[in-house]
Write a structure and sequence with these properties.
The protein is an all-alpha fold. Helix content is 71%, strand content 0%. It is built from seven helices and no strands. Helix 3 (41-64) packs antiparallel against helix 4 (70-93) and helix 4 runs parallel beside helix 7. The longest helix has 24 residues, at 41-64.
Length: 164
C-alpha cells in the first residue's frame, strides 16, 4: 500500500512539474529576449509586452479564477503568442499596401484585443497601458481573452482581405 501511495505522489509531482510548461516556455523566451541588449529595440518591445501580458494573466487568474487549471493558462499563453505572431506577419504583409490599409490592419488587432476581455478588469490605467501609448508597437489590452481575440481578428482579417 505504501508503494502505491508513493507512486501516486510521484506521478502527481511529475504532473505538477509539467503544468504550465507552455506558459513557462513562452515567458522564459520573452524575458530573455526583452533583456537582450543586442536585440533590435522593436523585438525587445514586443517581448516586453509578452512578459507583461503573461504576468498580468497569471496574477489575475490567481485572483479571479483560483480554480482554473494550468492547461487554461497554457492555452491562453499559446494564444497570446499566436496573436502576436499573426500580428507581426500581417504588418509585414501589409507593408507594401497603402497607408490606410496598414492602419486598418493595426486597428483590427487593437480592436480584437480590446473587445475580448478575459477578466473585465476596471483598472483601465493598467490594462490599457500599452493600448493608449502611440509610441508602442503592441498597442493591445492586457485584459484580453487571447483565444477569443485570435478568432475575432482572423475573421476580421479575412473580411478585410476579401474587400481589398
Amino acid at each position: 500500500m505504501k508503494r502505491i501511495i508513493g507512486i501516486l505522489v510521484l506521478l502527481l509531482t511529475l504532473q505538477a512539474a509539467y503544468s504550465q510548461a507552455v506558459y513557462n516556455e513562452i515567458l522564459s523566451n520573452a524575458k530573455s529576449t526583452a533583456a537582450d541588449k543586442n536585440a533590435n529595440e522593436l523585438v525587445r518591445q514586443v517581448a516586453q509586452f509578452k512578459v507583461d501580458a503573461l504576468d498580468y494573466l497569471l496574477i489575475k487568474m490567481r485572483e479571479q479564477m483560483p480554480d482554473s487549471t494550468a492547461t487554461f493558462l497554457d492555452k491562453e499563453a499559446y494564444a497570446l503568442h499566436n496573436f502576436i505572431s499573426y500580428y507581426l506577419n500581417s504588418v509585414v504583409e501589409s507593408s507594401q499596401m497603402p497607408a490606410n490599409f496598414q492602419i486598418k490592419v493595426v486597428r483590427l488587432f487593437m480592436d480584437a484585443s480590446y473587445s475580448n476581455p478575459l477578466f473585465n478588469d476596471p483598472e483601465h490605467e493598467l490594462t490599457l497601458s500599452y493600448y493608449a501609448r502611440t509610441d508602442c508597437f503592441t498597442r493591445f489590452s492586457l485584459d484580453t481573452d487571447w483565444r477569443r481575440a485570435n478568432v475575432a481578428v482572423m475573421h476580421e482579417m479575412q473580411k478585410l482581405k476579401d474587400n481589398k
